[in-house]
Write a structure and sequence with these properties.
12 strands; inorganic pyrophosphatase (n-terminal core); alpha/beta; about 20% strand; Diaminopimelate Epimerase, Chain A, domain 1; 12 helices; 2 domains; about 40% helix; four-stranded parallel β-sheet; binds manganese (II) ion
């Protein structure tokens, strides 16, 4: 039995499918149960009915009777949402597979490797340790997990191992161009329009080595976009020449703002996020702040500007 966070992304879904398909090939009885659906860009990786959406009536008995429960790619088990309670009440052996710094992990067995680019790498190693044979149905979701968590093999977490594993998966029949196209080039119109809204509001502060933008509720309405359509906007802001820190403010509700922070080389955006009750790592962090948009912008920018100057002139 598997679980991950809401709106399962490429790594969450890819690692649970990779491991569950491998275990099924050994004749194990496996159910993949998630809360909060799958991200649109990667939902195609799952076969029809392969991932079940958690419902208390259908699944509490299954969770209670399971021998083991594997939770993947989730630094805080509270993010299991409605499934958290039955998972904790079960007598099953709880296993955690993760590569995030752990916030809350009440597992019996935890395999956490923060040097892994994706949980998919950990799953690959586990299958190897079990003497398992890698096959295309297992390799495909694991490839998706590597592809998405490394930003198409370009983030700083990408290693020789990541590329070696991708090479192995390609040799098994994974088609990089096809996978890339299915994951990244199915953009709905709303996503591009929302990017336009974000770039139209871009503020560049070259003297502070910082760039930021905001997506108020009106921007979502104007573009017909969904919450998840802002994925990737922050990368566009960070791509700007000469900046160290990029910030995106998303108004997710009245008086509630989700903030994403990215840094290029020197600034520790995790330190900024922590001041507002959030977290992440030095290059990528975020938090949700309950206050009006303009107020959140002012406070976060004031905290981020000195951090953006860290290491200025060091290059
Ligand atoms: Mn991950």
């Amino acid at each position: 039995m598997f679980g991950t966070h809401a709106s399962a992304d490429g790594d969450a879904l890819g690692s649970e499918l990779g491991l569950s398909r491998f275990l099924k090939s050994l004749g194990k009885e496996v159910r993949v149960i998630n809360t909060g659906g799958l991200a649109r860009s990667v939902a195609w990786v799952a076969e029809a009915g392969e991932v079940e959406e958690y419902a208390a009536a259908a699944h509490d008995a299954v969770i209670a009777a399971a021998d083991s429960i594997v939770v993947v790619d989730i630094s805080n088990w509270e993010r299991l949402g409605a499934m958290h309670k039955p998972v904790m009440a079960s007598k099953a052996v709880r296993i955690d597979l993760d590569h995030h710094p752990v916030a809350s992990c009440p597992a019996d067995l935890s395999i956490n490797d923060t040097s892994a680019a994706a949980v998919g790498e950990i799953v690959h190693a586990l299958i190897g340790r079990m003497g398992g044979k890698m096959t295309l149905p297992v390799a495909l979701p694991l490839y998706v997990s590597l592809l998405t968590d490394t930003g198409s093999f370009k983030y700083s977490n990408t290693t020789v191992l990541t590329h070696a594993l991708a090479g192995e998966m390609i040799s098994l029949g994974v088609k990089p161009y096809e996978v890339y196209t299915r994951v990244y080039e199915g953009a709905p119109a709303g996503r591009l329009k929302l990017l336009g809204e974000a770039l139209g509001r871009l503020t560049i502060e070259p003297e502070a080595r910082l760039a930021w933008t905001s997506l108020p509720r009106a921007a979502y309405a104007a573009s017909g976009a969904k919450e998840e359509d802002s994925e990737g906007v922050i990368d566009q802001v960070r791509s700007l020449e000469g900046i160290e820190v990029a910030i995106l403010f998303k108004e997710v509700g009245p008086g509630e703002v989700k903030v994403s922070l990215r840094s290029r080389f020197h600034a520790d955006v995790n330190a900024v996020a922590k001041k507002f009750g959030g977290g992440g790592d030095a290059r990528a962090a975020g938090m949700t702040v309950k206050a009006p948009l303009a107020e959140v912008e002012a406070k976060v920018l004031a905290a981020a500007r000195p951090e953006a100057m860290r290491g200025a002139g060091a290059r």
